[in-house]
Amino acid sequence: MTDQTQAAADTASDTSFFGHPKGLAILFFTEMWERFSYYGMRALLVLYLTQHFLFSDERSSVMYGAYTALVYVMTIIGGTLADRYLGSRKAVTFGAILLVLGHFGMAFEGQGSKEILTYQGQEYQVTLDGRGGDANQVIISDSGQSMISFNDGATQMLIANPEAVGLPASIDTSAYETRIEREQIFVNILYLSLALIIAGVGYLKANISTIVGSLYGIGDKRRDSGFTIFYMGINLGAFSSSLACGYLGIVYGWQYGFGLAGIGMLIGLLIFLWGQKFLGGRADPPSEEKLKEKVLGPINVEQACYLAGIGIIAVAMLLVKNAELIPDWFVGSLGIAIFLFLVAYAFSKLMGDERKRMFAAIYFVIAQMPFWALFEQAGSSLTLFTDRLVDRDLFGVSVPTPVFQSLNAGFIFIFAPIMAWLWIWLEKRHLNPSTPVKFAMGVFMAGLGFLALVAGMKAGGNTGLTAVGFIFLIYWIHTMGELMLSPVGLSVVTKMAPARVVGMTMGSWFLYSGLSNYLAGVIARTTGAETMGGQLTDVAAAKAVYMQVYTQVGYIAMGIALLMLLISPIIKNWMAGRD
Prior knowledge:
With 579 residues, the chain is α+β, with helices and mostly antiparallel strands. The chain folds into three domains: 17-112 and 183-326, Growth Hormone, Chain: A (Up-down Bundle); 114-181, no CATH class; 333-579, Growth Hormone, Chain: A, CATH 1.20.1250.20. Helix content is 68%, strand content 9%. The strands form five sheets. The chain has a seven-stranded antiparallel β-sheet with strand order 6-5-4-3-2-1-7. A two-stranded antiparallel ribbon has the order 8-9. The protein has a two-stranded parallel sheet with strand order 10-13. Strand 3 (137-140) and strand 4 form a beta hairpin. The protein is globular and about 80 Å long. The two termini are 37 Å apart.
């Protein structure tokens, strides 16, 4: 019996984790804690940028978009290095170490940036008396402090207790100037921490999924079920982290939320290292001898792979730090160039059904973009909107904004089994929509969600808060769209692409996912509003901008979805029977 045959037999007989190999338990909890750390940090990030470091809405949104885009793009490098040299075990371990360092780095916040207001030659500090949307703007002088607010149109700053600070009860906004003072060392720690997380996810994300697949032999009917269990671990981590890290970060302090995310990643790393004995060597390097070969003086292949990670950190730090300087046309040109390359490859290297299926794969790679560009507003513009313009009271308690990001994972727990049952029920009646139709429906739901939110905004008037139920509604609609598009996305691309270029096509999927996240940052940037101390100065103007942008992207997405629906028969034909 060969080693491969023995490994397959051992795997088939291992049913110790809900009928699956015990190695799945190790990967389930590793990924759960990794997603706990990622989504816990994500829940706080934009609020942290705007309120603690006092970056503008525009810069914060672009930084967020660049960060999330690079997270996806770097998985291509991490996956390639693991496939050819490191193996998944070493790549995941290295990535997890970088993630632990990055998340703990986020907890070093310093004293925060200061907004200095100069009026009639005197300087005052404007700050918040807390974190999140319930924090009030406060002006501080040598003699005391007072809450401030702004009139309609933000033409005057109103001071609640003028005697305490030695200022008039109202000041024209044209009569003072403001500037931001930042602690540069902590700003640089922020950039470095984000870069460490980008590189860490790049080495870990794709490779841990590869290990899950390696647990099952060819023809093992438990494979799809195993990935479903693994996917539930992802959502369990996302759900719990938005609640725990989000609550701690807003109520007790940023460092506690980010610190908890770091602890979660550390637990995931320790579980992965402890559980290697249950993986049976499936994640080992392709060749230990190859890793020891010298490539540059005393540096061997393995060390070079780790040095590549250091290079990723340096590049990511530079790009996140200067995200607003990256021209949109450059990112767009990159997407067009890759599209043309894929089409040229299909025409020059493939024929017949293989070429048609490659065209279908290219379509799905591109068709994901409008959905994720809107869906990823959850971590940027939708978070700021919820924080500032939504009545977040539930049963008499003001819910911290980051907690609402748990709704997506919570709805997946509830509705994923229902949707899975629905597709089977429809299939038995020959009514199950084709994959291209499901993609169109997913994009349509992304647009519909924003139009539903705009309806809620209109109900609140020009300056009134939007009812919190509409936040539940948009997350539910977007989750239903995700369930129509995301579960089948990676699967259909691997089925359509010829076996010899599956890796290249999957790399393109992740790259366009990254471009989608960058586009999400561009959209969020257009919703930017004037702030002081990280809070709005003109509620009516900010609300009008949100309504305009969300209406536009909603109708555009629905128009794209209609076009996708019209061409779905062509795409189905390209799939050549592999729907």
